Input
Amino acid sequence: MASRRGVLGLAAGALALGSASAAGLAATAAAAKASQKSVDYQSHPKAGKGCNTCNAFQPPSKCKTVESPVEAGGWCSQYKKNA
Output
């Protein structure tokens, strides 16, 4: 039979491991973003297409796929129009 202290210790360890894993995943996601240079980012729209109409844009100046900051009126080669 497990002691109360042993069970609590295991639970605390599991919580700490879960927090570390979540932090690691967030850091990996941030590191996985493309550089602005690699996607030909420019701070002005191209052919009427701009970050503010892209599905990856996160107002006011973030992007899900490209390193931030980005301009709402900017553009890059990963542009995908909002559905």
